[in-house]
Amino acid sequence: MAIGIVDTGQAILNAAPSELNHAVPLWYLRKAFAGGIEGIDIGPGTLFPFVRADIEGRAAYVDEQGYLSPARNSETGGGERTIGFVRGGRLYLDNMFVQGMSGLQVGYNYFLQGDGTLSVTPPTGENLWSVRVGLAISATTLYMSIAVQGGV
């Protein structure tokens, strides 16, 4: 099974990236996996079997082919469809804690940038979304709190 996001904000579960079975609202997935869970396994045999190779340590979205892909804050980077953060082969959604990071500034929100990195500075420029990925609660832990606002 794979998952994809459609323009209406729904997550799409499917047997293969091209075979649609049924839709599940994204808010339901976030709520279902929220709190207490140490991330969701990704890769073959999981809810997210189709994963791009360069996803580790990056904010993630589900692309048009059904792959979990690195999000970038650009017109075609999927930033506005960010669903989580990948670390250690696991996907972390809203209300989850990503541990083992380094150099985070405690108390600061982290935003998705045009190149896919995270920064405490919200992006500026044409056609960029304001995508808050999370809040640093320690130098090594990011609390996932995804919020997307229209193009900046």
Protein described:
By secondary structure, the chain is mainly beta. It has one domain. The protein contains 1 helix and 13 strands, in the order βββαββββββββββ. The protein has one helix at residues 26-32; strands at residues 2-5, 10-16, 19-25, 40-41, 59-62, 68-70, 84-87, 90-92, 97-99, 109-112, 118-119, 129-136, 141-151. It has a 5-stranded antiparallel sheet with strand order 4-8-7-5-6, with no helix packed on it. A 5-stranded antiparallel sheet has the order 9-13-12-10-11, with no helix packed on it. β5 (59-62) and β6 (68-70) form a beta hairpin. The longest helix has 7 residues, at 26-32. It is globular and about 35 Å long. The termini are far apart. The model is unreliable at 1-24 (pLDDT under 50).
Which terms summarize this structure?
152 residues, mainly beta, 5-stranded antiparallel β-sheet, 13 strands, disordered N terminus
Secondary-structure blueprint:
Elements (H helix, E strand, L loop, with lengths): L1 E4 L4 E7 L2 E7 H7 L7 E2 L17 E4 L5 E3 L13 E4 L2 E3 L4 E3 L9 E4 L5 E2 L9 E8 L4 E11 L1
Antiparallel strand pairs: 1-2, 2-3, 4-8, 5-6, 5-7, 7-8, 9-13, 10-11, 10-12, 12-13
Please compute the radius of gyration using only Cα atoms: 14 Å
Structural class: mainly beta
> What's the helix count?
1
Number of individual domains: 1
Helix content: under 10%
Largest sheet: 5 strands, antiparallel
Strand content: 35-45%
Q: Tell me the series of helices and strands, N- to C-terminal.
A: EEEHEEEEEEEEEE
Low-confidence stretches: 1-24
For the termini, the CA-CA separation is 35 Å
Number of strands: 13
Strand order of the largest sheet: 4-8-7-5-6
Shape: globular
Mean pLDDT: 77
